[in-house]
């Protein structure tokens, strides 16, 4: 009869414009799928060119090279006897579309353009593509000559349709369409589609994975069916980390789960499922069947091929499983670590350099690099030849095998404590002990000579010598002297990144890591062009609260006991003079707000879309037990003054791993002016009026 269908989905670590590498990873996924008996293979969104091409989508080269890759796929024996579903951009009647190209045995069955484009947050698909707005409509697409020569087809169907095989019916969704209120799978399911596919380019955000899983399972819980999701994974060239989680679901339950974080470039999930389970599930949902009798039918592209075998009674089928979610601390340990590994190997550098201050932020960054080293050793132990080859190239040793994370860390990670006369011995000791425990190559240096030289130049030119406020100087002098120290640290960080390996007789250079957290960036509590200025920043999208929890996780899971004293110490910049040998400056006093408050402000400003007045209105209720309305008003005004005064710093923010939906990243996620009227006179007057009324 033919009822057990075997389907495959995958998570691929594609790289924008890496057509050669992308093609090889697609071939590998098809080979694995076929070897496991799959008759249908689904890949991630825009997998041929890589999702993150951005304005390269405008270029005809991107379209040309995508078709050249498609040609290689079509003519290869590897793609025979399996329906292949790949993603690429296509120009149809001079309009660019984000498409799925579905083919079988050198024939293109259907080109399905994306209907709902992702255009919020980090996504800008409407900038490059046009959504297909002709529901249940097919047109002829005239193939390029290089494809015609392989397929023997002049035109193929282009539009919103479904595939009817000998044994079932398949319908495609593309990423955002699953998240849309009127997802195509609803109407497709009512029209008899039994297998839904979704090719995604969905990136990691802390605590987001469950939402994606819930959406997939709910897609078939009410309507029945099989749902297959493929996703991009890894860093494909920018701030985002695509977190895999390929999955297969049936009738509202997960039957196959892919990893969220791993160093495997190709991961394939295969499941065998019984179509009769879908049909019997749907049979008793009377409301669904009544709606189905009135549905507007989809065009069906007939396919002379079956996903099942005629004699499959004894074929075992997959059973539901319980999805295992990572804790936020595990996500921080794994996501940025995988992102760093992709960046390191693809940038062809020899490692990282981190200014390690002995505080929570730089220590958390060091722990993420240490976690990366753990992941590399684990992948090599599990037989990942790609990771082993990359590790050998990075350390410049063709016989090297990374087995011990601490030993590998010493080869690829340099930490540097940059002391000044304002640094305490406590932070120096904390940094040194942590470096010893993770195994990094650690440098201690003193910046006082450089600071005195720079301030000396100013004094020679102006005849004036600035002083710290504790010595009678003004606030302007005090801030300038702090900034000089911070900026000299940035200059030295890059000098040592370029030449440390040279001085040690080793080839290559190091990438400089920044360690400003998302809350400090939002408030602007950082010096422009200081050590927050780096090549990349793995914690720039993570809150201080989450970082503290992550440090506790590292104490327990990596046995890094040095972190205990770092956790208990108050955060400080150590840029002002010590008092009796002890630190007198603390971050929260300097900022005039706590990190916990900053996290609340950040979420209200970005996620809740709250301006000053709306934020005040929300907080008088949220904080009614701890603050009077007048105190709330004062806090809100102070935050918006500081945020707007410092917004210009976001234009030069180091590219950071995107992990929070309230990130102030000015590149494309949080688009705001950087020259504000910082008095907010109208807005603050509205707040004052409400305070007086209360």
From TrEMBL:
Listed name of the protein: Glutamine-dependent NAD(+) synthetase
Record-listed E.C. numbers: 6.3.5.1
SUPFAM superfamilies: Adenine nucleotide alpha hydrolases-like (SSF52402), Carbon-nitrogen hydrolase (SSF56317)
GO biological process, one term: 'de novo' NAD+ biosynthetic process from L-tryptophan
Organism: Machaerirhynchus nigripectus
The protein's enzyme class: ligase
Family the UniProt entry places it in: In the C-terminal section; belongs to the NAD synthetase family.
Known pathway: Cofactor biosynthesis; NAD(+) biosynthesis; NAD(+) from deamido-NAD(+) (L-Gln route): step 1/1
Oligomer status and interactors: Homohexamer.
């Amino acid at each position: 009869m033919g009822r057990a269908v075997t389907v495959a989905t995958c998570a691929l670590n594609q790289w924008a414009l890496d057509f050669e590498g992308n093609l090889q990873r697609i071939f590998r996924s098809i080979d694995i799928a076929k070897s496991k008996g799959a008759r249908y293979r689904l890949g991630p969104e825009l997998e041929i060119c890589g999702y993150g091409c951005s304005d390269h989508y405008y270029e005809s080269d991107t379209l040309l090279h995508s078709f050249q890759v498609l040609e290689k796929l079509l003519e290869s024996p590897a793609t025979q006897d399996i329906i292949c579903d790949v993603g690429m951009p296509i120009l149809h009647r001079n309009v660019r579309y984000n498409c799925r190209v579905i083919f079988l045995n050198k024939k293109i069955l259907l080109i399905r353009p994306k209907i709902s484009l992702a255009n919020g947050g980090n996504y800008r698909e409407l900038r490059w593509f046009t959504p297909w707005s002709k529901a249940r409509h097919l047109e002829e697409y005239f193939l390029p000559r290089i494809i015609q020569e392989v397929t023997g087809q002049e035109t193929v169907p282009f539009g919103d349709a479904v595939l009817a095989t000998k044994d079932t019916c398949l319908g495609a969704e593309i990423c955002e369409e699953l998240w849309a209120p009127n997802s195509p799978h609803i109407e497709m399911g009512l029209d008899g589609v039994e297998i839904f596919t979704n090719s995604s380019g969905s990136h990691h955000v802390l605590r987001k994975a469950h939402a994606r899983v819930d959406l997939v399972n709910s897609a078939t819980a009410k309507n029945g069916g099989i749902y297959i999701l493929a996703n991009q994974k890894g860093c494909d060239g920018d701030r985002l980390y695509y977190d895999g989680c390929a999955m297969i679901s049936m009738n509202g339950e997960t039957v196959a789960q892919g990893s969220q974080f791993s160093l495997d470039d190709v991961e394939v999930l295969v499941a065998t499922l019984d179509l009769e389970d879908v049909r019997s599930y749907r049979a008793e949902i009377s409301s669904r069947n009544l709606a189905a009798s009135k549905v507007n039918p989809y065009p069906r592209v007939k396919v002379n091929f079956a996903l099942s075998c005629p004699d499959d009674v004894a074929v075992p089928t997959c059973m539901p499983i319980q999805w295992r979610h990572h804790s936020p601390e595990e996500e921080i340990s794994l996501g940025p670590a995988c992102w760093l590994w992709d960046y390191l190997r693809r940038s062809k550098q020899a490692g990282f350099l981190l200014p390690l201050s002995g505080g929570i932020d730089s220590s958390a960054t060091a722990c993420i690099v240490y976690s990366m080293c753990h992941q590399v050793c684990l992948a090599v132990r599990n037989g990942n030849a790609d990771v082993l080859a990359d590790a050998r190239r990075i350390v410049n040793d063709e016989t090297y095998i990374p087995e011990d994370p601490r030993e590998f860390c010493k080869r690829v990670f340099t930490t540097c404590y940059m002391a000044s006369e304002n640094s305490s011995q406590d932070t120096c000791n904390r940094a040194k002990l942590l470096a010893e425990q993770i195994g990094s190559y650690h440098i201690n240096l003193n910046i006082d000579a450089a600071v005195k030289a720079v301030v000396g130049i100013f004094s020679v030119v102006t005849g004036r010598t600035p002083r710290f406020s504790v010595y009678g100087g003004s606030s302007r002098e005090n801030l300038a002297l702090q900034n000089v120290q911070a900026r000299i640290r940035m200059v030295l960080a890059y000098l040592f990144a370029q030449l440390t390996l040279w001085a040690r007789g080793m080839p290559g250079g190091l990438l400089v890591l920044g360690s400003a957290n998302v809350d400090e960036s939002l408030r602007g509590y950082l010096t422009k062009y200081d050590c927050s200025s780096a090549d990349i920043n793995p914690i720039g999208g993570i809150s201080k609260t989450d970082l503290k929890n992550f440090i506790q996780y590292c104490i327990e899971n990596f046995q890094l006991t040095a972190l205990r004293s770092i956790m208990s110490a108050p955060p400080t910049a150590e840029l002002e003079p010590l008092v009796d040998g002890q630190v007198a400056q603390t971050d929260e006093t300097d900022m005039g707000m706590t990190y916990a408050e900053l996290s609340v402000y950040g979420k209200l400003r970005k996620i809740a879309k709250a301006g000053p007045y709306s934020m005040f209105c929300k907080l008088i209720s949220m904080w009614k037990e701890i603050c009077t309305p007048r105190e709330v008003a004062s806090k809100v005004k102070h935050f918006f003054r500081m945020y707007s005064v410092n917004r210009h710093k976001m234009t030069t923010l180091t590219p950071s791993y995107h992990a929070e939906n309230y990130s102030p990243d000015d590149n494309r996620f949080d688009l705001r002016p950087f020259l504000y009227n910082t008095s907010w006179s109208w807005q603050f007057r509205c707040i004052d009026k409400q305070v007086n009324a209360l």
